[in-house]
Amino acid sequence: MPALAAGILAVALVTMFLPPPAVASGFPATLTLERAFPLNQRVELDELKARDRVRHGRFLQSSVGVVDFPVEGTYDPYRVGLYFTRVLLGSPPKEFYVQIDTGSDVLWVSCGSCNGCPQSSGLHIPLNFFDPGSSSTASLISCSDQRCSLGVQSSDAGCSSQGNQCIYTFQYGDGSGTSGYYVSDLLNFDAIVGSSVTNSSASIVFGCSISQTGDLTKSDRAVDGIFGFGQQDMSVISQLSSQGITPKVFSHCLKGDGGGGGILVLGEIVEEDIVYSPLVPSQPHYNLNLQSISVNGKSLAIDPEVFATSTNRGTIVDSGTTLAYLAEEAYDPFVSAITEAVSQSVRPLLSKGTQCYLITSSVKGIFPTVSLNFAGGVSMNLKPEDYLLQQNSIGDAAVWCIGFQKIQGQGITILGDLVLKDKIFVYDLAGQRIGWANYDCSMSVNVSTRSSTGKSEFVNAGQLSESSSPRTVFYNKLIPGSIMALLVHLSLLYTSLFL
């Protein structure tokens, strides 16, 4: 989520705002998740990395003391894309396109009279503005509201010096930012109850943006806002869980090939091959304990302390980052091992400092399997397409380059979409663990939640019906049950790549 993403952790500042003019349950529910790609737009790898750097700069303003990353790389022919979903807010419901961000907590959308908010989008989607005065169920959040107090504790909220109003200001490392106030209103969704889909709603607190600066003002990749999936109390997943509407777990399966697609679920995808590793406790991001890296089963000579979590080290799972980034001390051993494994089959070459390979056949069967080994004795096995990017062609040969980038001078490892695609990922916040499994994300998945009887029951989330409207989502196959699970389904138009 390049220039559009909200930072993984933004610092809430107390700022003065003028106040604007003045629930139901049922889950799993459905939203429509899309991945969009600006048509006919080619982007240099330098720009992809620069956009990742912009995103990282945003969460680097957090209290963990991480710094911005330098940019390096080579040109890349991919088109730039991002993941976003539709949400329906207010009464009557109004549709907003919001970017999916596992690295921030708050759901916020652009509001009326916004200063700097884009008026149009190069993603070919309509942009809307939320107006609390036009929703019969909207109300402002005061400083004395307990929900505001929770936001203050997690640095997601502040209190204005006038009007007793709960506000936020998120300042990002690239100089961009957004400011606004919090409102309470209905999130409307389609809930799966048994074998049927019903309209449901829940009261949530979300941000109403009245000012945007920097890259957030640009229209080329503009959406209506950001949908934060972080762990703090202000996140929608935490709010719905505290109301007993959804379990405190969400999952996604992002399809990586040209057909696009995938599934995002507020609930637990159940698949027998899923393995789990514990989250590092007391971290603002989704940090895992990466212990080693293996290439073709051979562990690389990297000091485990390189991956240990501290104020400026650690491994973060971030669906908002397009590429993948390795701590500086791990990068060269990783690239050297890949090059050594394929030296007899391909022609290595450097392109603007990035290791590339000239290949006349498929990368499958030539390039090795890479294993990221985590705490709990589990591994994430990467296919060549999970660590390589096809750049261009020279005659009849294709140029493939290492997709992992070096984080020069820093010890942070970030697993972005390059690694996360074509896998089920389960973010079990209640159990403080993350699970994954390689999976064909064009297939349906089973989603588990607990019914009122306390038993685990399942629904089956398949592909969306092509005739489904954005407001009424039906799934091809459902297993009867008495529970509901919030299902967010992807409908991708694929012609490119990034957040």
Question: What this model shows, in words?
Answer:
There is one protein chain. This protein has 499 residues and is mainly beta. The protein contains five helices and 33 strands. It has helices at 45-59, 146-153, 236-242, 328-342, 417-420; strands spanning 11-12, 29-36, 82-89, 94-101, 107-115, 139-140, 158-159, 166-171, 177-193, 196-213, 225-228, 249-254, 262-266, 268-270, 275-278, 287-288, 290-295, 298-299, 313-317, 324-327, 347-351, 354-359, 370-374, 378-382, 388-394, 397-402, 404-407, 411-415, 423-428, 433-438, 445-450, 456-461, 486-490. It has a 17-stranded mixed sheet that branches. It is globular. Mean pLDDT is 75; it is low at 1-33, 35-40, 57-77, 451-458 and 462-499.
Topology summary:
Elements (H helix, E strand, L loop, with lengths): L10 E2 L16 E8 L8 H15 L22 E8 L4 E8 L5 E9 L23 E2 L5 H8 L4 E2 L6 E6 L5 E17 L2 E18 L11 E4 L7 H7 L6 E6 L7 E5 L1 E3 L4 E4 L8 E2 L1 E6 L2 E2 L13 E5 L6 E4 H15 L4 E5 L2 E6 L10 E5 L3 E5 L5 E7 L2 E6 L1 E4 L3 E5 L1 H4 L2 E6 L4 E6 L6 E6 L5 E6 L24 E5 L9
Parallel strand pairs: 2-33, 4-11, 5-10, 19-28, 20-27
Antiparallel strand pairs: 1-8, 2-3, 2-9, 3-4, 3-9, 5-11, 6-9, 7-8, 8-9, 9-10, 12-13, 12-29, 13-33, 14-31, 15-30, 16-19, 17-18, 17-23, 20-28, 21-22, 22-26, 23-24, 25-26, 29-30, 31-32
